[in-house]
Amino acid sequence: MRGSHGCAEVARGRLDHHVTVDLIGTSLEKHASAMVLIVDGDPPSTENKNIGGASWLKCELRDTKFIGAGDPARLGEILTHFKSWAESH
Predict the structure, then answer these.
(1) What is the pLDDT of residue 41?
(2) What is the reported pLDDT for 1?
(3) 17-22 and 35-41: which strand pairing?
(4) What is the Cα–Cα distance from 68 to 26, expressed in whole angstroms?
(5) pTM for the predicted model, two decimal places
């Protein structure tokens, strides 16, 4: 969806879910400094050959976007982290 409030995309895969919220043009844009907000479990990485643990989650701000990813059971938690961050700014 796109409008005066940015753009959001949810990608659901068999092994993980990704949420990307473009903050350009929103009141949150000025708060989107690059930072990791939360890492829980063992997300896919080069160290684990891009195979994450059974339960994992990572939310970060990068390139004026909120980017959240996690195992399929944690999509709701990713959205909750975005909502909490957005409401605190």
Answers:
(1) 95
(2) 37
(3) unpaired
(4) 18
(5) 0.84
Q: Residue 60 in contact with residue 2, Cβ under 8 Å? A: no
Q: Assign 2 a pLDDT band (cuts: 50, 70, 90).
A: very low
Task: Determine the structural domain holding residue 51 and report its residue range.
Answer: 2-87
Task: Please count the structural domains in the chain.
Answer: 1
Q: How far is residue 43's CA from residue 71's CA, in Å, rounded to a whole number? A: 9
Distance of alpha carbon 4 from alpha carbon 63, whole angstroms = 18
9 beta partners = 20
Decide if pLDDT at 75 tops 50.
Answer: yes
What whole-number distance in Å separates Cα of residue 24 and Cα of residue 63?
A: 9
3-state helix, strand, coil in the chain (%, to 5): 20, 40, 40
Q: What is the CA radius of gyration of the chain?
A: 13
